[in-house]
């Protein structure tokens, strides 16, 4: 799988008689509600969205809720009260946003769901995301291929560290992983000593690093006192950092008995950990591409046009099947990170080689 960087059609900029930039968004304001700045990934999303919209002439009001559900509700209500023309939302917990989004619909303000599906609302027009089940499939396939699960005579221990139960993406990612590894669990090639293989038992509220670390510490001390953990299926780089810390605390050594640790988002710290050997892989999700697709959706709803869509079946939010564009994720490790992340300009060599985190 290769990340597509194909340009999308959008509004053209022009120079006004005063020499200032004008575009299709001139005179219009887009409210962008992001979940948190605690993850590098969401900062990039916000920055990319703001830049691309401003390049088209839109004013952008970008808000971060710092994973506070009520804060995001208030931010969205304030954006609506300020008279934004369109609303882009990456939800902390979409179930809490139903009433605020109903206000948007009543006011005729279109809503675009960004990377997290807005559930139980008919106010959403489109959804821009990555192939969330595909992320899980890519993680599962990476482990399958690199541990040679189809041919090995050995049995490997594993544990699951999945995403937040209030995020539909986390469920789809879990389903993608399990679709790949369930046959190996049934065969006895993969053994989960804690028995925590359901999403309900393996999820991590708010994708929180400290929560993942504490749970990993408990699992290692309870189930792995006499046997080593071989594979940690982590759904997000932030969880991977917590797993890393727990493994270090339990005496695991990189290069000796260190487990395979997966991840998602290819954060800068994760890439440094991959190079040092304390994380095995991550999933690259080019936020420039995702922002670009979302911007085309904003353009469409504000100009009575149709954006590019490639999925009209998967994303049923309980009220409607939301027309979606799915960008393609890609597994990265120490062998291909330069090609995927440096050669495309996502990171520079200097950023990756820097000691600062």
TrEMBL record:
Gene3D superfamilies: 3.40.50.2300
Annotated CDD domains: PBP1_ChvE (cd19994)
Annotated ranges, domain Periplasmic binding protein: 30-303
Localization terms from the record: Cell envelope
Bias-annotated ranges (Basic and acidic residues): 11-21
Span list, region Disordered: 1-32
Keywords: Signal
InterPro entries the record matches: Bact_Solute-Bind_Prot2, ChvE-like, Peripla_BP_I, SBP_2_dom
The keyword Signal appears for this protein: yes
Pfam assignment, any one: Peripla_BP_4
Protein name per UniProt: Sugar ABC transporter substrate-binding protein
Biological source species: Aequitasia blattaphilus
